[in-house]
Design goal:
The protein is an alpha/beta fold. The protein has two domains: 289 residues, Zn peptidases (Aminopeptidase); 84 residues, Roll (Urease, subunit C, domain 1). The chain is built from nine helices and 16 strands. The mean pLDDT is 97.
Length: 380
């Protein structure tokens, strides 16, 4: 199945009840209730604030794949794509073949308290992705219990990334990123890492057709407290997925399609191949992410007779079950080494807030005045 065909499947099977960035248990529970009877639905644990954590088991194949999303509660794009995938299994005969060769265990929202509060951390202020060794939190214990009992052959660690990342020195945003996590301090390229790398290389090839030069990999510095590093260290090929930013896609709906494409491409590859890791070297052609972007850069603004640039970053704020993007000025300096997802030119003029005051670092401005015009900084 080629990339264009998979993209067509996405449009056909997209779960329209899930959209934008705020996804919590109450949004997925009606979908879980109406899943096909062939999918085993379990409550595998309870969060700090007594919310259920759901597990979904689908397929009957020998190859076992464990997937978990929203370990960080404010990273929901991969969750949306999970339900698009589940819809596809119900309707597409070609994809049903995956389920005869693979068994998937999916945790759609591991951190339901963080999801509801729209925070990275859980209700005890703990980053679950730094709790793999201590297992101090009920959500961490839940994932570990499933890992131990399910005995996966592959793990998909599903996350979202900030808008600040570029794909190497391409000058383009890292819209999707991956990592085959290290399993030791030396970052040895072990056999199971090679397996993960080979699968990532397969996904990268498909994504390059759609978003050329916008795929990155993360630094593989080893941290055993991270779940991916822990599972990799136990010799289970583990893949980090990171759903990032595409131009003007602050709702992450296009990125959602790309994550779906990655799911399908990787699952078909695993189902139909004995993945040995022999084709891992293409992984190293993917550029490493760099912190090279701001949401907005206003170029060529004058401050005390000096021409500088203004960097604006959006603060993601939960208001009435919607995510609002609040502009905040992060830097005022020469930003020639950085890119803006939206770039404006002050043309040597002074940039003021709505009250006529020259903007400063830390200002939170919805509008600025430049070139004698009132300009909105809010994403369209």
């Amino acid at each position: 199945m080629n990339t264009a065909q998979i993209r067509t499947l996405f449009k056909k099977n997209k779960e329209t009840s899930l959209s934008h960035r705020y996804i919590i248990n109450k949004h997925i529970e009606p979908l879980i209730k109406n899943l096909d009877s062939s999918i085993v639905v379990e409550t595998i644990g309870i969060s700090v604030l007594n919310k259920p954590i759901y597990g979904l088991k689908i397929g009957s194949g020998e190859k076992r794949i464990l997937m978990w999303s929203q370990m960080h509660g404010n990273e929901s794009t991969t969750t949306k794509a999970i339900f698009d995938l589940l819809n596809s299994f119900k309707t597409e005969e070609y994809l049903k073949d995956i389920l005869t060769k693979c068994t998937l265990y999916i945790i759609p929202i591991l951190n339901p308290d963080g999801a509801e509060a729209y925070t990275r951390i859980n209700a005890n202020q703990v980053d679950l992705n730094r709790d793999a060794q201590n297992l101090s939190q009920p959500e961490s214990k839940c994932l570990r219990t499933v890992f131990t009992s399910f005995k996966p052959h592959y793990c998909y660690n599903l996350h979202g990334q900030r808008t600040i990342f570029g794909a190497g020195n391409t000058g383009k945003s890292a819209t999707v990123s991956f990592l085959a996590p290290a399993q030791d301090e030396a970052c040895t390229v072990t056999d199971n890492r090679k397996v993960a790398m080979e699968i990532i290389a397969e996904m990268n090839e498909a994504l390059q057709d759609v978003i050329p030069e916008q795929i990155g990999v993360y630094d593989d510095a080893f941290n055993l407290n991270c779940v991916g590093d822990t599972f990799q260290s136990e010799n289970i090929p583990t893949i980090l997925f990171e759903a990032g930013h595409f131009n003007n896609d602050y709702g992450r709906e296009f990125t959602r399609e790309l994550i779906y494409l990655s799911y399908v491409k990787s699952l078909v590859y695993i189902a139909n191949n004995d993945v040995s890791g022999g084709l891992y070297e293409e992984y190293f052609k993917i550029p490493e992410n760099e912190k090279s972007f701001f949401d907005v850069i206003i170029r060529n603004a004058t401050f005390n007779n000096e021409v500088l640039d203004i960097a604006v970053q959006y603060q993601e704020v939960l208001e009435e079950e919607e995510i609002k993007f609040k502009p905040k000025i992060e830097k005022i300096e020469d930003l020639c080494a950085f890119y803006g997802h939206n770039e404006m030119d002050a043309k040597g003029g002074i940039v003021c807030d709505e009250n006529g005051e020259v903007v400063k670092i830390g200002y939170e401005n919805v509008f600025v005045i430049m070139n004698n015009e009132k300009t909105s900084l809010i994403p369209k």
